[in-house]
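Researcher: Next sequence.
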Amino acid sequence: MFSGILTLVNEVAGLFTITNIALLFGSSLLGIIVGVLPGLTATMGIAILTGITFGMPTYQALIILMGIYVGAIFGGAIPTVLLGIPGTAAASATVLDGHPLAKQGHGGLALTTVAIASFIGTLFGMFFLAGLTPLAVRMALLFTSPEFALLAIFGVTICGSLTGGGKGGTALKGWIAGLIGLLVSTVGFEVFYAFPRFSYGNINLMGGIAFVPAMIGLFGIPSVLNQLSILHQKNVLHFAKEKTSGSLKIVGKKMPMILRSGMIGVGTGVIPGVGEDVSAWISYDLAKKTSKEPEKFGKGSFEGLIAPETANSAAIGGSIIPTLSLGIPGSPPTAVLMGALMLHGIRPGPMISIENPTFIAHISAILLLAAFTMRFGALIACRFAPMMLKVPANILMPMVAVLSCIGAFALTINIFDLYVMLFFGLIGYAFDKMKYPAAPVVLGIILGPIVDENLRRTLVATGGSLEPFFTRPVALIILFAIALTILSQLGVIKKLKSAIFSRKAKTS
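Model: Next structure:
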């Protein structure tokens, strides 16, 4: 424990230079801007910057990407409070009480409270990242091919089901989107015999579908098209002048709830594929159920504001834990982050502590400093955000489109990647109109090679037998989790509970 703390302190000291702090502060501000602009997401911000930072030193690229990540998760709360429009999916639960508080003239106080809650949540996630990841890595060494294949399937399953229901669709839509991502990942040379699959003689497809252009297309193009189709409304709220120093007092009174929300954020983030938006909703729901004043929720409750913002920020550290220890993304943003790590020669998974002994402490140190730079950036953003939201969509969105093209093209300097971005942009736009979630597609593309490689390796080793999937204890646990997830999202478990309780009521 002491050696781990000492390593973290050394990493923080090593990062504490003027150049690094300037990069971190600038990227945090840029992340906040990404979150502030409705329709843009942390995932898209990281995806665009991944291509731009490709030629940079690894440590500088990580500083920029982590700053974008932390800043965007907080920044999504600003338009949520100001306009009642969630800037990101992670802020969707915040709108229930954030905007009512703004209508009551407490917008400034609400924004500063969100900034403090996000800061605490990020620190909470960082401590668990630094403390739990080495343990998770040691446990991951016990995993073999069957467990990794099932774990990847579990990630797609839970992401598809939970995300699918959150956008007006059904669990089935989420699973279909995840399976599409798995199918896309099979394009190109297969792992064992280098046989080209679904390339149809096109040399550009033999290397597979480039992840970053596909990501930018899925999230960037639909955002641009949707925003350009809506006239920009200049209806920024004017807040009553009030002392925002009261936010510290508000947060201080809610520390038990904040600690619980932080635990929910980390715990939910560790589950592959769930992410920040789900953790925010779970935390909000539990805060309402345990509150002494549940009637205030939805009408302007600071508890309903603090709980989701603490959880979605804590989920940042939680989502990075399975990304580093298992090579399984904990959320869509960490899926892109995982791709960025691979581009810079860092291979997430059980061997990361052996190949890069101080990397976990290094990424924890960056997250720690990002929490502080985000906190200072929030002071600026909360003051000037309404001015940024006044930029007309017909000016802003073309700029976003150009930046997206640069991010897709800069990675390999290949014009074909722009076609990939456009193709997936059209798919993302169609998904948006049909209420299909895009996040499971992203995770399917990332997790597909893991499923393919480990499933086939198991079958080759056993002569085509599926026995290891049903005889190994860890594999059985994951199979049970997959079955439980599917049944719960289909409503089977809920129906069984209702039947049991009704039967007990009749017998009593």
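Model: Residues 254 and 348 are 36 Å apart (CA to CA). The longest strand covers residues 188-189.
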